[in-house]
Amino acid sequence: MLFCSSAHAQQQIELSIQGANEAQQQNIRAHLGSLPTEPHQINAFIAKAREKTLSALVALGYNNAHAKVQVNREVQPLRVTISVDPGAPTRITQMDLSLKGDGLDDDEFQQLLAGIIQQQGQILNHQSYESWKDRIQTYARNHGYLSAKWITHELRVNTETREARVILEFDTGVRHQVGEVNYKGSDVSRELLERMSPLTLGEPYQSSLLSSLESALRRSGYFDDVLVTPDLNKVHDHQVPINVALSDAPTHSFKVGVGYVTDTGPRAQFNWRTPRINRYGHSQETTLRYSTVNPYINFFYQIPGEDPLNEHYLISLGLEQNDYGDLTSTQKRLALSRQSTHKKWVWATQLRWLDENWNFAEQDYRAQYLLPGLTLSRTRREGPIRDPEAGFLQNYQVEATDQNLGSGGRLLRLTGFWKWLHRWGDHRVVLRGQAGINVTEEEGVESLAPSLRFFAGGDQSIRGFDYNSLGPTTTVQTDDGPEQRVIGGKMLAVASAEYQYYLYDDWRLAIFTDAGNAFNRDKFNPVQSVGTGVHWLSPVGAVRVEVAYGISEEDRPWRLHISMGAEL
Q: What is the pTM of this model?
């Protein structure tokens, strides 16, 4: 039973429906419309209530239904009761569906009809019948049957036997094809545009292909606006011309930012990007960042490959200074790489030249390397970038070199990084791991460039310890006597487990433990820290403020960590 009421300053009405199930009640209400609020509307509502109730039941396949309307005007609000006897439903006993034209050879079209035919034996629903017609017409329109038309569409109902017959005969006509694609509004070379296009001249026309083309052009970053439309007025030989209106993206973009991260302290950054240098789609990005620990300048020049959206070639130049343990190094590097995406994996082959200078114990060192390498990575993420619901990031890299390549020594370097997270309700778990190994001819690391050694400690490593402050040490004689200095190791193993609880949508608490270290063979001395923190989910990513303690050390070091950015 369903009760409804509507109030006005002078008049009220209450409606109850008896004898109908929930679906029938909802359809009856939909047919009746809004309850009247004005006195002069009430009599008209009551007069039409029975007719509309029966229409609502017929639409659901109850052609022999009965309905009675009773009105009690002696009470306030005025009460209207509709008593319903739906009776036995009408069922679809026969479905005659057929195609003519090119659609006969379209397996997907045939599967669509087969799915509709399976409804034979079900209770008749007029809305379902209309939706079947819409699905057939929509498929034809979206898949190139532009001259399709109905031959027959009938619904025959025998109210005495409560049987219905559906007759749908559809002529698809000739299936149209993709015609010439006309690009306007940009000087990007047609050859590059065609390499980005999923369309092939003469293939079956589908509206989804136009959406794919628009999406591909937008993803390129070359254009500020893209509009793809079929020119149905110029169809020739059943080929549909496609018009593409392009608006170029701004020639240059600049970003200036300031921030603070515990590892590198306050920093300022300037970024200059040119999304398209020439008509062949070349682009560049230059980043200059200043901080007291890790200032650098990087220049990237990108050239699209055969598949411009999934393959490109990259030339990069960099000058960087960084602290590694008790070493400060200056690096100059040049790299040539090819990156491609296949089945969501990003592959990168690279040839990297590294020239690094550092000073240790008042002695200057220099090393040069030519490092061929391969990087393989994949990121799976569910939910918003600033706060993923679930995800898994994995990255693997191998580099190798030899004296015969002009390098200072033989080296095989392997690294891996993993990060997994999952949220359920207000709870979230984040697990992280990092490992690496250097295989060299020498036992020690003294001749190995600091940027190729392994260190631990810091915001993204083992919290509670300073940035790159953990690793093997050596004894150095100073004016104050012998001192232990961190020089890094050949191997690395670090792991982290973190639990987070959401206080509000944009705030969460975290508790965590980090463990591991950089080390040399047979000398693994892991350290461990525990900590807690609060995270604010800003529009640009999580801002994390955390305090961690090194529980494995006698003096129990502690450190405040402030960091921000996307997690995956």
A: 0.78
